[in-house]
Structures are given as structure tokens and as C-alpha cells.
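--- STAGE predict ---
source: upstream dedup step, 1 unique chain passed
mode: sequence only
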Amino acid sequence: MTNRLSRESSPYLLQHAENPVDWFPWGAEALAKARAEDKPIFLSIGYSSCHWCHVMAHESFEDEETAAYLNEHFVSIKVDREERPDLDAVYMEAVQAVTGQGGWPLSAFLAPDTTPFFGGTYFPPTPRHGMPSFRQVLEAIVAAWAGRREELARAAESVRAHLRRETAMHAGDSPDYADILAGADQELHASADGRDGGWGGAPKFPQPMVLEYLLARQTVGPQPELERDIEITLDAMAAGGIYDQLAGGFHRYSTDGVWLVPHFEKMLYDNAQIARCYVHAWQHLGKPRYRTIATETLDYLLREMTHPEGGFFSAQDADTPEGEGAYFTWTTAEVRDLLPPAEASAIIDTYGLTEEGDFEGRNILRLRPGFPTPARPDPASSEILGAARARLRAARETRPRPARDEKILAGWNGLAIAALADAAAALDSPLYRGAAEKTGTFILEHMTGRGTAPGGGPAPAPSDGSAAAADSATPATMRLFHSWKDGHISGDGFLDDHACVAEGFLALYRCTFDERWFVAARSLADALIERFDRPGGGFYDTSAGHEALISRPRAAYDSPTPTGSSMAATVLLKMAAYTGEDRYRAKAEEALASLAHVAAAAPVMAGQWLSAALLAEGPVTETAIVGDLEHPRGQALVETARRRFQPLMVVAARHAGAATAIPILDDREPAPESTAQAWVCRHATCSTPTDDPEVLTALLAGGTPPL
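--- STAGE serialize ---
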């Protein structure tokens, strides 16, 4: 028998549609029932690829007795955190305030007015390791609700007061960017793992935003100790079990401190950000290994995570019917049975396989320390190893595959567009360029007011008249939806959706110089100012017309995705450079000021903020190229502007005589004797235009052009 969740589109909610728990999705029906029956709300938040969410579902939500107790005493609401990050943010903050920790599954208990008074994460079916059983927790809540309501009301008011404090702005004077950045450099180096890479111990998460900042910092002033931290981390991650050595792509995090045993789910946001980071590392540091990891990761996304119409799915599960990680792991017997002896030996030796294994009797593939990498293989074994890896991957694809969450989220797809566009420009790859354009077009056509509305009919025209269009007629502000699945759109876009998609569109513009992407990015930048602005400075994560919650969320930390405020500041600073409009910079600096305290106190949690602050500190280089862009000389100028990793540069280009929507291209035409010319500007001062790629190289490096 199914419950109400069978009518939902979220893969996570559908996973619970057969539970005996009388689940409600978040909405008016559930909240009205709680008020009418004066029952506490049990709010369970998770996501489709969450391993411990699956465990708790199997142990408790599929149990008839537990379900009957929940149904009698509670109104139970199930939420997909990826569809409703606003609810997740509010109630995660509340649970952390109550318990000192958080995670998923998130289990919160609310009064009928939705104020939380108690919570936790995973609760086992029986008491263990000092944790109460889920049934014990439920019984304690029921007893307190019946006999100690005033005590719960005080707890709820305490949580509400905490949420008010956390969402209060920390705005003040414009921060001293140079001082905060210097302090962050020292703290990041001091806290880096100098042996195994990364920051922190087990569990160890990739930190692509921190790595991006450190790479960008090297372009301003080389710091050898930070460069070592970057390389140690990138090399260790690429060699570890967190990286899928056969098919590319990164798992979510490592359960240990050495990148060996991952949590096996693969998330779009991780792989998009990490791939972009490896592209930039290859551009700046020149190690072929980084190019290999970037392309293998992007190829994984294109092969396994792409919707036929464009757009990328959200996640791949950790679990299969055989258990967590079974799809990705091997025994030595399996390897010997599948491969000829020489190939089996190459796999066993290269990846350190043992009879006993390193994960539940099986082996996680990871490069043994000191072994040749795919970028520097042993000539005697590289051909054998390559053939062996191909055979193992083919054999693995016959196994039951991990489930895939096929909803398409706007912000995460913006991150993917940025990665593909930067890779396309750096590698001159038509494949990645086409994929980035297809994804951008998908967002414009399906997630900006076109397509199907949440109720199944045609999407309504936005109230501000801003239907999306993939051309220069895109209106001043654009309505962006958060999620799309099977033709259904749901939820207005959040701040991070607008900011991440705008960043992706700007990267796509730099890759193609097709101005529809710049126009769309500017429309989104204007929309986030119009709909998310907070009086007094900074931004909220939800728009002005969003459902009113007990607290209007405003994320402060860049982890594991950029906060909307930090990415908004990044986009607005770039938009200020492209347009010369101070209003963009002013809003960016307000957003940075509101979160400066986080970057100063915990830079590892503020990677995107640090990159934005580096842009604000500047100077930003503005490069304009005008002329015949198809001519070899025009192509050489464009290629020169793209060759190096230059995070503090915006670049624009157009054909001579063409109309433009980009102010830094206005009133510029090449001299009659030149096929194409480039202008380089900093601090509102521009160089003499040049048609010589060598001169342009010197100008971009900040040096003196060759004579």
C-alpha cells in the first residue's frame, strides 16, 4: 500500500512511498493536520543517495510497529533536502543548536507552528553506542508532549531565538580584504595535511573551493608552501579510493584521513567543482595528471549523469542490492577470473589489492604509493594496464548499478556548465563546449518559465513578465525555477541557483563569446538583487515571495557548495568589470561584508568568499578583443587570452562592426591595418590596443610588452 509520497516527483520521497508510515510532503495539508489534532510533527530530511537515510528507512520506517506508533502520535513529514534546501538549512541549524551536531538523515521534532524543540540525525532501532533507540526517542517526545508542554515551549523559544541570532547580519564597514586573505593563507597552510593532503581528519571532504582560492592566490603572488599544499591534495585525491579509478568521477568524501575508503555516492556538485579545479590546476601548474583527472571526471558526467535533452542528474547512490560500495569494489579472485594473468597482475600490483581486502572483504582500487600514474606509466606495463582497466570497467557495468537521482537542479547544473565551459576553452574541446551549451539551453528552455508547472500544466508566465529566452531579447530580470524532473518544474530558484547559473553562463560566454549567455547572466544578476536583497546589506537565500518559514535562511559557509551570498558576490564583481556599473560592486561588497567574520574565523569553510574577496581586492583585468575572430590573427589573440588560468580577468570579444550588449566592447574597432586588436585595462586605465599575441601575453602578465 502506498502513502501520499507516491504522488511526488522527488526520487527520495518516492523511495518512501511504500513505507507504512503515513508520510506527508511538506505543505499546508500536513501543517493543518498537526494544528487541528494538536500533535507534534516528526520531520525527516534526507536525500536519495544518502546511505544512512536508507539504513534508518529500512530499520524504522519500514517497521510496522514503529510506523503505527508514529501514525498514532505524530504528523510525519518527509523532505528532500535537495528540493527544499531552505527547510534543510533552517532545521539543520536548529538541530545543531540543540545537539551540537548535524547530518543526514535529519530528524527534527516540531510544534504544530513548525518551531523545533528537539532533534537528532540517525537513530538506531535498538539502543547502542550510547545512542537511544528511535522508539525510545519517540516515546520520550510523546511523554513530554503530554505532561511537560511548557518545558518544550521554552526549548522551542530558545531555538527560535538562536535562529534569529544566526540570521542576523554581521554587516559593518567594508572588510580589509588584504588582511583577511593574508590570515586565511596562514591558517590554510597551518591546518593543511602535509602528508595526505586536504584539511581536517576523518571524515575528510574534498575542498575544491579552497583549492580554487589557493590556485587563484598563486596568480597574484606565488607562495611555494601553498603550492605544495595544492599539489599534495590534488595528487592524493586522484590516487585514492575517493576517485573512481576505472570510470572517473569522485565519491562524496573519505571516511578516513587518507582518501582510501569513500562514502560511495557520487554527487553532481562535487564532480563539477572538482573537475573545474583540476582544469585550472593543469592550466596553472602544468601537470598532465591534472588534465587526465579533469577529463575523466567530465567524461563520467557526460556518460552517466546526462539527461538526453541536456542537463545533469543530481546524484548516484552508494548502495546496490549487494550492499554499499559493492558496485565499485573487487576481490582478487574476481580480478583473476576476469583477466588474463599479466593483466590481473598489473591490476593487483598497481592498485594494491590483497586477499583480505580493505573494505568488508573486498578491495577499493587506489594507486599504490610510488607506482606510476596514468600520466607517467611504466612503458612495459601501460598497455597491459590500460587493457585491464577497460575489461574491469566493462565487467563492472554488468553488475546491478547504483540508483540515480534524476532530478535536475538549477544551481548544481550551473556549476557543471562552468566546469565544462572552462575545460572547453582550456582544451579547445568541441565536446565539452557542446555539452555546456546544451545544458545552458536546457536551463533557459525548461527552468525559466517554460515547460511544465508543478501541477502538471503549462508553466505560468512569471508575474514580472520575464519569460526566459535564449537570445538577446532576454528581459531585465529572469524567473528561475529550482528543480526539474520528467517535465515538471518545482520551486522558485534560490539565491545560489541564480548565482551559480549566472556564473555558469559567464563561463559559457567566455568560452563561446555568444552574447546570449552574457545577457542571461546579467538578467540573473539583476534578479538576485531585485528578489533576494536584504535591507541593511547582503542577501537572503530565499526570494521575497518565498514561503514564510520560522526563519528566513541565509547560509554563511561555503561547504560543500558555494553559499548563495559568496557566489553572488563573485558574479556581481565580474558583472561590474564587464559593465562598469558601480551598483554591482556595491552589492557584492555588502554581501562580502556580511560574511567576513566567517572567512576570518574559519577560512576552510569560506573558499568561495575568499575567491570573491580576491576579486574585490583586485585589480581585475578587463580584456576586449574586436575584429575578425575567424582570422588566424584574431584566433591567436583569443587563444592567448584563454591559455593561462587568469581568475582575476574578464574577457569579451566580438566581430568588427557587430552590435554588442557588453559595455567593455563599446566604441572599439580595430585599426584599418589590423585584422583584430585587443585592449587590456586595469584600474580604469587601458593599454594601447595591440594585434600582437606576444604583446598581449606580456600585458596580461602585467609586464612590459616586448619591443
